[in-house]
Amino acid sequence: MAYIKNHPILGTMEKKRYVTVTVDGRNIQGIEGEPIAAALLANGIRVFRYTQKFKEPRGLFCGIGQCTDCLMEVDGVPNVKTCVTPLKEGMIIKTQRGFGEELTNGKL
């Protein structure tokens, strides 16, 4: 596969740094600074949360931070919109169930 390395408008393609994060106890890699959701999809992860009432799976929907389908628990914080949150080294990401662990345990 050929890649455009020097685009006349976008410029030269920068070398990307790969980082390792943990998703539900499994280590995956992604490009630092890309949306968390992009790294998840690139690693075959399609379900990001389950709804509170009917326990239905949800994944990426709008991709611009306007809906709530991509919410996950990130570094212990529930309800993080993974489609607009940059990936960082060492993040601990969990599939969110309902309103999230902290909310259902009465911590928030």
Identify the notable features of this structure and list them briefly:
mainly beta, Ubiquitin-like (UB roll), five-stranded mixed β-sheet, three-stranded mixed β-sheet, 2 helices
Structural account:
The protein is mainly β. The chain has one domain (16-100): Roll (Ubiquitin-like (UB roll)). 10% of the residues lie in helices and 31% in strands. It has 2 helices and 10 strands, in the order ββββαββββββα. The strands form 3 sheets. The chain has a 5-stranded mixed β-sheet. A 3-stranded mixed β-sheet has the order 6-5-10, with no helix packed on it. A two-stranded antiparallel sheet has the order 1-2. It starts with 5 loop residues before the first strand and ends with a helix.
Element order, helices and strands? EEEEHEEEEEEH
In CATH, the architecture is: Roll
The total count of helices amounts to: 2
Distance between the termini: 49 Å
Would you tell me the structural class of the helices and strands?
mainly beta
Query: Number of folding domains?
Result: 1
Order of the strands making up the biggest sheet: 4-3-9-7-8
Give the amount of beta strand, in percent: 25-35%
Tally of DSSP β-strands: 10
Mean pLDDT equals: 90
CATH topology: Ubiquitin-like (UB roll)
- Major sheet size, sense and barrel closure: 5 strands, mixed
Low-confidence stretches: none
- The 3D shape can be described as elongated
Assign a percent range to the helix content: 10-25%
